[in-house]
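2024-03-11 09:14:02 INFO worker-7 job=invfold-0412 stage=load source=structure_tokens
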């Protein structure tokens, strides 16, 4: 690893740590706290909005990486510009200044449409040895994918450390596979930058959390990871499948939960305890084993499958099916258990 890249990443960790402390102190002074209620899983009032530290540290890293020729102009503009739209939307939502779900969703789609347009749509997808080009439909699919990743990270950020741990483990695995596949530190440096910024925040968000990420951070990291996957897929098409596989825990839990709530005619954006990870946290009486469990699934189940895809041992689409099937079954079982307990 180049020494300049190592310096940038190290500074990012320190910057994110310092900014998290500043945000926490400000939130305490202004009483910007998440107060425990019957739908939350924390027991004491906790400062929120710590994700702003991730946003600022990551943006600083991208600027530094651009200045040292690690990041292309187009990618830097998308990550900072479109990422800013998402982060500001989340910031306003955290401060209850943007209360309408439709307004938030509209801004999310604006950011996603701009990003996908600049990137040139959905990259080619290899399916069973055939390169599939979806054209305009691919652009629509990529836009929806970005908006869904953005919101599912928001939905899944419900217990201490889970989103930060997801970012760290998924980005770490992706960096290894990207570099092994492309030998390109320029592309690998992007998830490294997000992981470094997230590490500085995770120090204070690890169970028991001293500060929460908030919408400003959760939506931002989900959106940025989506951008990473499109950029990586454009470089090596099978890497698109790799990112989708690695994100399996969050994608499956959020999707199964959303479908279940829509089926029961419940509003998806209203706070609830319907997720599999929430059910497990209540069962264990602690956040830590669930957060550690998510990391373990990422590293010991999903990563080997993604690795096999990069080695050409299995097709990317098949890899998604293999990775997601047991996760989906587990999520459905936990959902049924929760319904039986309620009834």
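2024-03-11 09:14:09 INFO worker-7 stage=emit residues=343
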């Amino acid at each position: 690893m180049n020494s300049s890249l190592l310096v940038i990443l190290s500074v990012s960790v320190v910057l994110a740590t310092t900014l998290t402390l500043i945000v926490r102190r400000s939130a305490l002074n202004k009483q910007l706290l998440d107060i425990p209620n019957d739908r939350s899983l924390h027991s004491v009032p906790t400062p929120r909005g710590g994700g702003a530290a991730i946003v600022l540290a990551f943006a600083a890293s991208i600027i530094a990486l651009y200045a040292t020729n690690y990041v292309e102009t187009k990618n830097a503009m998308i990550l900072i510009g479109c990422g800013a739209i998402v982060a500001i939307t989340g910031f306003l939502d955290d401060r209850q200044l943007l209360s309408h779900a439709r307004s938030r969703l509209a801004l999310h789609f604006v950011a996603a449409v701009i990003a996908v347009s600049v990137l040139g749509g959905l990259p080619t997808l290899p399916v069973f040895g055939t390169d599939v080009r979806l054209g305009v439909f691919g652009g629509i699919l990529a836009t929806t994918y970005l908006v869904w990743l953005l919101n599912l990270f928001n939905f899944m950020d419900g217990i201490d450390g889970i989103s930060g741990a997801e970012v760290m483990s998924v980005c770490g695995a992706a960096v290894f596979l990207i570099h092994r596949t492309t030998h390109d530190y320029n592309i690998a440096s992007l998830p490294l930058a997000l992981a470094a910024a997230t590490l500085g925040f995770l120090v204070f968000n690890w169970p028991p959390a001293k500060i929460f990420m908030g919408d400003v951070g959760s939506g931002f990291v989900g959106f940025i990871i989506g951008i990473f996957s499109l950029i990586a897929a454009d470089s090596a098409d099978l890497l698109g499948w790799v990112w989708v596989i690695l994100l399996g825990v969050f994608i499956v839990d959020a999707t199964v939960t959303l479908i279940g709530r829509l089926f029961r005619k419940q509003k998806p954006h209203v706070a609830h305890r319907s997720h599999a990870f929430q059910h497990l946290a209540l069962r264990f009486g602690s956040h830590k084993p669930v957060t550690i469990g998510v990391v373990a699934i990422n590293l010991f189940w999903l990563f080997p499958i993604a690795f096999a895809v990069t080695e050409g041992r299995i097709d990317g689409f098949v890899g998604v099916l293999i990775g997601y099937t047991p996760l989906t079954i587990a999520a459905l079982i936990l959902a049924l258990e929760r319904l039986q307990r309620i009834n």
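2024-03-11 09:14:09 INFO worker-7 stage=report msg="Residues 3-342 form one domain."
2024-03-11 09:14:10 INFO worker-7 job finished
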